[in-house]
Specification:
Elements lengths: L4 H13 L2 E5 L8 H17 L4 E6 L4 E7 L5 E8 L12 H10 L4 H8 L3 E3 L12 H16 L4 E6 L7 H12 L3 E4 L2 H11 L8 E3 L14 H8 L7 E6 L2 H4 L2 H7 L6 H13 L4 E5 L13 H11 L8 E3 L6 H8 L4 E4 L2 H8 L5 E5 L2 H9 L6 E3 L5 H13 L1 H30 L4 H7 L1
Parallel strand pairs: 1-2, 1-5, 2-4, 5-6, 6-7, 7-8, 9-10, 9-12, 10-11, 12-13, 13-14
Antiparallel strand pairs: 3-4
Helix pairs in contact: 1-4, 2-17, 5-6, 6-7, 11-16
């Protein structure tokens, strides 16, 4: 436990109170605003329904500590962080191997206590990491906390996420056992719901496997600092059309290695540079580059690094209509900025959820199937260009055509997003009812 006696006492009080829930798979400090959006969407939705429940984040922190977050209603909410990381330093109390050993020998540990005493153990696996796609170590990282929670008698609830793919029978079996032993599991799109049902293998209780929607559709907006607000508010002072573009640093900075790793048809850097220049060739357009992943000490994966590289590649005479949004630490602030665009194009999926959910006409340059599923939920599946299938010129033209159709897309979103917003609220109610211990059949009856 932390070295501060008052902090340690407060954490102990919370873990003994029963008025808390565990949240796993969505750290707030990764620099990935998409992952942070998942965490804050869950925290905000539960705080609306149970303002006294404290979130206990089992994340990659060092040790244990308290923090707080400002909710969109202006109130401060206390948070508990308990480190549960995988590393070679097995002797550290925040190491998952140490925690597993503590469980075996009956040694007290606050992570295990949190699993036992919590209202529920919520897990979202980073949205798309409950898979063996990223290697065996990552798969173990995604599964071991779930296993520990169940072994401690915790009520495991798998929040809306992607399930799979699984490349071996063994990883499919391990993942399926966790799903089958959960209190409830939500898939965030129809494609993933099919996988979830296969994993259940007919063994689910009534209402245990549910089709849902990405929780980030319910993320509130929060104005950023005054400097960024002033930058955005200035857009209304002229007649320019504001085109927002999210550039993935992972692919842009990764060059040919990233192109090969993700099996992209064309060169992403060339694509982005051509797309930006095509928009800037229209003198009625302003281009705003919006970073959404800025991992600490990792410039290669940083969207901000990529945005600055894009800006440097633009001719000086066009620079006056090109802006870069500075690094934002809160996804609610990024969503506020994106909501002020007239049209948006993103590669990071959660940057596009921020635009879609605020009814900004949106296109996507996608390199995984999960993006297509999200856009299909919004009746905008034809606004997704697959980087694995289409060459550079086709991608550029596809986004330009999407931009030209922006008013049509706006009308589509005006119809679909209110429906999704209602679904988000109903889903949050169902999740909280599951946390409160209502049975599966009762859960179904109340939906």
């Amino acid at each position: 436990m932390g070295s501060n006696p008052k902090m340690s006492q407060r954490i102990s009080e919370i873990l003994n109170s029963g008025q808390f829930y565990c949240l796993m798979g969505a750290p707030l400090d990764s620099g990935n605003l998409g992952v942070s959006a998942l965490a804050l969407s869950v925290i905000e939705s539960i705080a609306k329904r149970h303002p006294n429940w404290v979130p206990v984040l089992l994340d990659y922190s060092r040790g244990e500590f308290l923090s707080s977050t400002r909710l969109s209603n202006g109130e401060e909410l206390e948070l508990v962080h308990i480190g549960t990381s995988v590393s070679r330093r097995f002797w550290r109390t925040d190491n998952l191997n140490f925690i597993r050993l503590a469980q075996r020998i009956g040694f007290p540990h606050d992570a295990l206590k949190a699993f036992r005493n919590s209202q529920s153990v919520l897990d979202i696996s980073g949205g798309d990491s409950f898979t063996d796609l990223y290697g065996p170590k990552r798969f173990e990282d995604m599964t071991v906390r779930k296993q520990l929670a169940l072994q401690e008698g915790g009520k495991l609830i798998l929040l809306p996420q992607t399930y799979g793919p699984y490349s071996t029978d063994e990883t499919f079996r391990v993942a399926s056992e966790l799903v089958q032993n959960s209190t409830a599991s939500w898939a965030r799109d129809a494609r993933s719901f099919e996988t979830l049902n296969k994993m259940m293998d007919g063994k689910e209780a009534e209402g245990q496997a549910r089709l849902g929607v990405d929780v980030a559709f319910g993320l509130p907006l929060l104005p950023p600092d005054e400097a960024v607000q002033s930058q955005v508010n200035a857009w209304s002072n002229d007649s320019l059309t504001t085109v927002g573009i999210n550039v993935s640093g992972l692919i842009y900075n990764g060059g040919e290695d990233a192109q090969a790793q993700y099996d992209l048809k064309g060169n992403y850097r060339e694509l982005v540079d051509k797309l930006v220049r095509k928009f800037l060739a229209d003198e009625s357009v302003r281009v705003v580059l919006v970073p959404h992943v800025i991992p600490p000490n990792n410039p290669v994966e940083s969207d901000l690094t990529a945005c600055e590289a894009v800006r440097k590649a633009v001719p000086q005479e066009l620079q006056s209509r090109l802006e870069v949004i500075p690094a934002l630490s809160d996804p609610r602030c990024a969503k506020w900025v994106i909501s002020h665009c007239d049209w948006f194009c993103g590669t990071r999926m959660h940057s596009t959820i921020a635009s879609l959910s605020t009814q900004v006409p949106t296109g996507a340059l996608a390199y995984s199937l999960k993006t297509k599923g999200v856009f299909e939920t919004c009746d905008c599946g034809d606004c997704v260009i697959e980087l694995r299938d289409d060459p550079v010129e086709t991608c550029v033209q596809g986004m330009w055509d999407c931009f030209q159709r922006r008013e049509e897309i706006r009308e589509t979103l005006a119809s679909s997003i209110p429906r999704i917003a209602e679904q988000v609220e109903e889903q949050a109610d169902s999740i909280v009812r599951a946390m409160e211990g209502i049975t599966h059949s009762e859960l179904v009856e109340q939906v």
